[in-house]
Amino acid sequence: MTIPTQFVLRALLSNIDRELYGVEIGAAAGLPSGTVHPILARLEGLGWVTSRWEDIDPSVAGRPARRYYKIDPQGADAVRNALATAYQARRAPSTSWVPQPGQ
Amino acid sequence: MTDREPQKLLSPALVPSLLITLGGRVLPGGSRRDRYRQEFLSELYGVSRGRQTVHAFQILASSWSLRSATRYPQREGNTMLSILRSKPPLCLLNIRHDWQTQSSPDGERYQRCSKCGKDRMDYPWGTDPKGRNTIGA
Description:
By secondary structure, chain A is mainly alpha-helical. Helices cover 51% and strands 12% of the residues of chain A.
């Protein structure tokens, strides 16, 4: 899992009850706004993230409806497990280059 | 002016709209292309013209990555563009890192760059504080 993907998932998990749209997710994850959409599309394809159109009247709001994303409740545990696995993989320092006894 | 009149947000300028449309051409046709075009345009509302242009350029630059993500969601998006954007330039070129000493739950100390997440490979093994090789010493 790439680091930007982890940032996006963390941003969504930290606001798990709140839906966010692309620019908000980019700001929360500290990523350029254009970067998050491919990540969100991939996560949506995997079933970890769901999205829906904002329920507004564009003529009243003065803008078109935004697309809002949130962690799928069914996939929240899978997301947490994946993030924990990615964290463990990054945390454990590799010692493969250290000479082993007998080498 | 009445109270019920909608508040108009700054609508997308011509150039950002064209960039969004251009980026959308890369995406698979049909409802998916329409969805993303509508989504990107909606994000341009209410932001400054300069920010709209920057955002639209970023969308355009990511359009091939988005195309790949929509067609093959199982593939990790490790494209060159995403790699370049994922780390600060000095970290990416391995010129300078911001090493922070940390401890694992079992008490082992290690160093990690606070900006890119890279673990320092020569710490604490192999070198002393002055950088001299101590393996076998």
